[in-house]
Design a protein that fits this description.
The chain has a two-stranded parallel sheet. It has helices at residues 3-14, 24-45, 47-64, 72-94, 97-113, 119-135, 142-165, 172-194, 203-212, 216-221, 229-244, 255-280, 288-294, 299-302, 305-325, 337-344, 350-366, 378-384, 409-425, 430-451, 459-467, 472-500, 504-520, 526-543, 548-572, 581-604, 612-634, 645-666, 678-699, 707-714, 725-744, and strands at residues 213-214, 404-405. The chain folds into three domains: 3-169 and 430-572, no CATH class; 172-397, no CATH class; 578-744, Phosphate transport system protein phou homolog 2, domain 2 (Methane Monooxygenase Hydroxylase, Chain G, domain 1), CATH 1.20.58.220. Helix 2 (24-45) runs antiparallel to helix 7. The chain is built from 31 helices and two strands. The radius of gyration is 30 Å and the shape is globular. The chain is an all-alpha fold and 750 residues long. Pfam families: FUSC_2.
């Protein structure tokens, strides 16, 4: 992409305003905290302290709006505490220009490097650098500096206290993440009805897993419906795919395909109902049509082999989803839910009939006569039933995993230090390059602004540190949005000031109104936020007697200077994603190969999941990393450097196909005690070896060769393989690997 086209794309993205779901209660709580701190500081300590507290409370509340699964009070306290400390240290060094610039450079470098710890930490650290550039200019003595630091900390403390005292939609983010995952699987089930090989985006499942990682304190208070549904969603996805795919499931056409379409539609409806229940914390309201579809008793007569096994597992998993998604305190699920779902898992064997009878008995026991309904029993009732009544493990399973625990805040220090130390050692690390780049820009901007005859020279580095991100598109887009938003916001606020001539109290009130609107519209776009932030700062400076007419002129020019410095720095010292695409592709190939090999190895030694789960998570992470890198590279003004757009698209489709085939085989992994398939172990070893060698070839711009896998399949007769699922899957894997090689073949010369 040319520079001109790249600039057009980034400008368009920076000025984009999105329609987003507003959260007025969250905005009202944050605004109330800001108003409480500002008014108290103004009454007790004067306008300068009120302005300091305004910055602290504003930043603490903004931190709570960031996408993070940590408790919101922790984010508010972390933001307020770090800003208070940096403000006080900055004032102590502010009397000596060289010392302050050195301290500013150290802060900025660490803030740039902290993006390696995640975007939330990076945003808080960068915002602290920006805020401290303003707040260090307000106090005049060490005692006043300590007082300003105290009111900044108070701002964060008040915001945290309001979150604790007035919780709004507690566990709402976790509920939304889990509901989104179930809704994504419902949509996937419906798409499989028309496209048996439809693709599935694992991002919602990954977000749900991140949301499921809780602190030890959270684990004790987490609602019951947020415990096991994510694990069930993970297990449902391969079952849905294997039921629909003609390679290992039902036939392309005929009664089997019609029955599968009915089951998929019913599964989508039930998953949607569970998603709505979890999102709103309500009982599950099952759609009658879906229940009626699952009541059809002739499933065992229509489906056979792998397709029939998949239908049984799907019914059992849906049963557990309904159970898990129902709050313990609710009693609105029809008592016959389990009895109806039991009809789907009925088999012609004695074991299947025993499982069906057990499910009916569990439903009747959970919903006594005379009540509206009761929570279905599912796996929980099975765990308390007599040993003789226990259904087979394939039908019911434990859905209450051990909680994924997040480390405490004190334990994060050593981990963060190790991560930052590792980034310093990585050659070409994008986060290290970002830290160096933003440090140079902030120092140059501060020195330049200090020597210009404008005053308030900190606005140039403030603009730079707020817009700069580790990637090109966000930096350029935010630079354009910040300048445009600043121009509009400063102009509008100046018109209000000149027309109304507000005093100190009214100026502070207008600033609070701007902050409230900013909280409300925070997710609609960066340019909208900048309009309100610019007006917010104008009103705050007006409250301490700053010349607003000069403020307009200075702020616009210095913001333009800061944005230009940020954009020039990326052109001079870039961290392009395009040259790293082959490395990302190779990482995905290795992860996919290890996942498929771990699944195949289960056929050689049926003993549980083993390494399959971790291999699946690694494969998903590599896929997301590839997709994000591809999106960033698509708008970079550089050549493809060895991986054209067509090659990247073809290779991505082939690797997605490898992951999908592994998922299909995972749905039919044999249970403990099943006859092993020794040849599967050799195939798994060959696949790992080929994936490692293939990744090396991709990095070195060679075409991968899959000879070990091909030879292993040629020497495998397939005898003794249950339903020949693994052998069919292995052949499909080889086809996908060949497609990857074809995609990476050099284009013939013209």
């Amino acid at each position: 992409m040319s520079w001109l086209k790249a600039l057009k794309e980034t400008t368009r993205s920076g000025l984009k305003v999105e329609r987003s779901r507003l959260e007025p209660l969250f905005a009202l709580r944050a605004t109330a905290g800001l108003a409480l701190v500002v008014c108290s500081s103004f009454a007790l300590m004067g306008p300068e302290a009120a302005v300091s507290s305004a910055f602290g409370a504003l930043q603490a509340a903004i931190a709570t709006f960031q996408r993070s699964w940590r408790p919101r009070p922790v984010l508010a306290l972390a933001s307020g505490t770090t800003l208070a400390i940096t403000t006080f240290l900055g004032y102590l060094a502010g009397a000596h220009l060289v010392l302050f610039i050195a301290l500013l450079a150290l802060w900025t470098f660490l803030a740039g490097l902290t993006w390696a710890l995640g975007p939330t930490v990076g945003v808080i650290a960068s915002s602290n650098v920006a805020m401290v550039l303003v707040t260090v200019t307000l106090p005049t003595t060490v005692a006043e500096a300590a007082g300003h630091a105290a009111v900044i900390f108070l701002g964060g403390l008040v915001q945290a206290a309001l979150i604790v005292l007035f919780p709004i939609r507690r566990w709402g983010a976790q509920r939304d993440a889990l509901a989104d995952a179930l809704a994504a699987e419902a949509d996937y089930a419906r798409r499989l009805r028309h496209d048996p090989t439809a693709a599935f985006d694992p991002a919602p499942l990954m977000a749900a897993r991140e949301a499921a990682v809780v602190t030890a304190r959270q684990a004790r208070t987490r609602p019951s419906e947020l415990h096991g549904a994510r694990g069930l969603a993970e297990r449902i996805r391969p079952v849905l795919a294997s039921l629909a795919d003609p390679a290992v499931g039902a036939a392309d056409e005929g009664p089997e395909r019609d029955r599968v379409r009915e089951l998929l539609a019913a599964a989508g409806a039930i998953l949607d109902a569970a998603a709505r229940a979890i999102r709103h914390g309500e009982p599950v309201a099952l759609p009658p049509g879906a229940v009626a579809a699952l009541r059809t008793p002739d499933t065992g007569a229509i489906l056979t082999g792998p397709a029939y096994r998949a239908s049984r597992r799907l019914a059992a998993l849906l049963d557990d989803v309904v159970e898990t998604a129902t709050p313990d305190t609710a009693a609105a699920v029809p008592k016959t839910v389990l009895a109806r779902l039991a009809l789907v898992v009925r088999r012609r064997s004695p074991e299947g009939r025993a499982a069906s009878r057990h499910l009916k008995q569990a439903a009747e026991a959970q919903a006594p006569e005379g009540t509206v309904g009761g929570a279905p029993a599912g796996a929980r009732a099975a765990a308390h039933a007599p040993a003789a009544a226990q259904p087979p493990a394939a039908v019911l399973s434990d859905t209450r995993p051990i909680p994924l625990l997040r480390p405490s805040v004190p334990a994060l220090g050593p981990r963060a230090a190790r991560t930052l130390r590792d980034e310093l050692k990585v050659s070409g690390s994008p986060y290290l390059r970002h830290a160096i780049r933003v440090t140079a820009v902030v120092v140059i901007g501060y020195v330049t602004g200090h020597n210009l005859p404008f005053g308030h020279g900190y606005w140039a580095p403030l603009a730079s540190v707020m817009v700069m991100r580790p990637d090109f598109s966000q930096t350029y887009g935010r630079a354009v949005a910040r300048f445009g938003g600043t121009l509009v916001g400063v102009s509008l606020a100046s018109v209000v000031v000149f027309a109304a001539e507000p005093g100190q109290r009214l100026s502070l009130a207008l600033a609070i109104v701007c902050a409230g609107l900013m909280y409300l519209l925070l997710r609609t776009g960066y340019v909208v936020v900048q309009v309100l932030i610019a007006a917010y700062i104008v009103f705050l400076l007006g409250a301490i007697g700053a010349d607003v007419g000069q403020t307009v002129y200075e702020r616009v020019l210095l913001t333009l200077l800061g944005g230009l410095l940020a954009m020039i720095s990326y052109a001079v010292y870039p961290a392009w994603e395009t040259p790293r695409l082959r490395t990302k592709l190779a990482d995905w190939l290795v992860a996919d190969g290890r996942y498929a090999a771990a699944v195949i190895e289960q056929y050689a030694a049926p003993s549980g999941q083993g390494e399959v789960r971790q291999a699946l998570l690694d494969s998903r992470a590599a896929r997301i990393a590839w997709r994000e890198a591809l999106q960033r590279a698509a708008i970079e003004p550089v050549r493809h450097r060895g991986l054209s757009h067509a090659a990247a698209d073809g290779a991505g489709e082939a690797l997605a196909q490898i992951a999908r085939i592994g998922m299909l085989m995972e749905a039919h992994v044999p249970e403990r005690g099943t006859t092993p398939v020794p040849a599967a172990a050799q195939l798994a070893d060959a696949l790992r070896e080929s994936a490692d060698q293939g990744a090396k070839a991709v990095r070195e711009r060679r075409v991968p060769d899959w000879r070990p896998v091909r030879e292993c399949l040629e020497n495998w007769d397939g005898e003794g393989v249950p339903d020949r699922v693994v052998l069919r899957g292995a052949r499909l894997l080889l086809d996908a690997l060949d497609e990857l090689s074809d995609a990476l073949e050099p284009a013939p010369p013209r």
